[in-house]
Fold:
Amino acid sequence: MKDYDIRDISLAPSGHRKIEWVKNNMPLLSALEEEFRKDKPFDGMKISLSVHLEAKTAYLCLVLAEGGAQMSVTGSNSLSTQDDVAAALADRGLKVFAYHGATDEEYMRHIEMCLEHRPNIIIDDGGDLVGMLHEKRPDLMSEVLGGCEETTTGVIRLKAMEREGVLRFPMVAVNDAKCKHLFDNRYGTGQSVWDSIMRNTNLIVASKTVVVVGYGWCGRGIAMRAAALGAQVIVTEIDPVKAMEAKMDGHDVMTMDKAAPLGDIFVTATGCKHTITVDHMMKMKNRAILANAGHFNVEIDMAGLEEAALSKIETRSNIMGYALPGGRTVNVIGEGKLVNIAAADGHPAEIMDLSFAVQAMSALYIKDNHGTLGNRVVDVSDEIDDVIARKRLEAWGIEIDSLTEEQREYLDSWKV
Structure:
């Protein structure tokens, strides 16, 4: 097997510059890199990784490689792969199988090529590595100790596998760590989604009505940033508690049927399919803008839209306009794929520093504890969250208080 399947190795210098930029803004990974260089905790181990293949992910790969890991790398979304970054990793001697704009068939071939590395540890984003191992290539599973899952969608898939009794090794739910979802999902998604929408449309957000589909941590971040930019925000939800939260946060709450005619911009963030249907789109304003912030391109019914559209035209780079019966057009950014990474640069470096520090430390946790974990979805320990949070505060130059012994005894006692 070739050591890489990428677009063009000559693009590597540009990728190296991107990686160096994010490295200078990722103090947690930089500190782990120093530790790993000395201790070599992954010496002799093989790691297969499928995460959005851009500069922050590339730096995580290099940090793990400094720890002794033999890395095999692919992307978790064909539109998020940056060819110069893939080339830079290949130039550094990593096995890389990804290029921008790969077809679905090519994408799955890259997933399989990445797994032919016969990994000991899996680092996944969305569950495609784990899915491939269980569904099509169980022969490549014999050396897997366990792995880590980056995102909400992947954790949902893993928990379904655990419930059905088919999961064959432990997987750490990195997404559920406090230092991941409270920051990555909320602040990272909130900023990067609007970065993508604004740079691709070149339109103002203030004065517009924004419909946010789903009010989990990603939806909260998207709604918060939309409101801060001057938009009126409508939230649609199926969970009554989250709907109540959205209302108390100052947003309007209603069904999608009622929101469809009102919105100027629609952003999905649920992890579910067909949260915006063709029936909804037929009710929307002319030239409404649709974007998806969920992992897979199923939240907007793109197949139904393709079938219903009378014609389509690229109205702007990364934006496809679909002409619908009745004279209206809807504009979809990034093919309905993950908008902040398929049509922009993804989360800010400082945010991914937190998430990828959790990934690196969770991979260590799997290496050291896999034999005692069982074939299940494993929570990130409070200890890992605490270590990462304290290191981030230290990098900011922030000190916080500690409990006195008297206070600790008070909190541990039932007596006043």
